[in-house]
Amino acid sequence: MTFGFAPPPHVSLPVSADSAARLGRMLVPAEWASAGIPLLRNPREVVADLHDRHRPEPSTAVVAVLDAQDRVTASASFTELAAAPDGWEFRNALLAHLRRVIPHDLRLRAPVRTAVLLYCREGEPRWTETDGAWMWGLRDACTLHGLRCGAYITLTPGRWQVLGEGRGGRRPRPPATDLPVPEPRRPEAGRSEPRRMTAARPDGPRTAAKAAVPQSRPLPRRAAGAPDAHRHTAAR
What we know:
By secondary structure, this protein is an alpha+beta fold. The protein contains 5 helices and 6 strands, in the order H-H-H-E-E-H-E-H-E-E-E. The longest helix has 17 residues, at 129-145.
């Protein structure tokens, strides 16, 4: 017969080697800010452009490659679900999608293009362990693809936020053309709608029949110097 004793609450349980390695593949905001990540010139335009291209839902990652003018030259979106966020898995997923949309720049002496990551999730825009794993994966994927590591942006239901910079704004809305169009109202069963009949309009305005207006006969002409003819009417 064996007896087990629960450890005191102030004693921490030993962390497994796998969990310790997973926590090591994660970046906190202070490490991200000190990594020399280049600032976006206009993050609002980048967020709006990527949102318009991919319309991300929660748990969707959008990786994009920017040129020297911060214009999007290639992008890809995918959904990555993980029970425990691991930067290693995120790095592999990012690298696979980067290889599909753009060739690597490993032959260049210095990177000329920048990769940014927009991650759509629920919750608050503040940093989470999932964000830290994505940051680690983005930085490592950029190194292996010859790109400069750019901004990491979270997209929550209320707003977008560039982590490590403090810049953010309201979540973009889809254009009015993408909103659902209401269906036409249908009459209820057994109930018919009155039909409106419109008579064809005649070419000219309708007017009442005009009464014939008698025209006066022209008077006979008299010859010059001729005496007037006297009319005699017999008395009745």
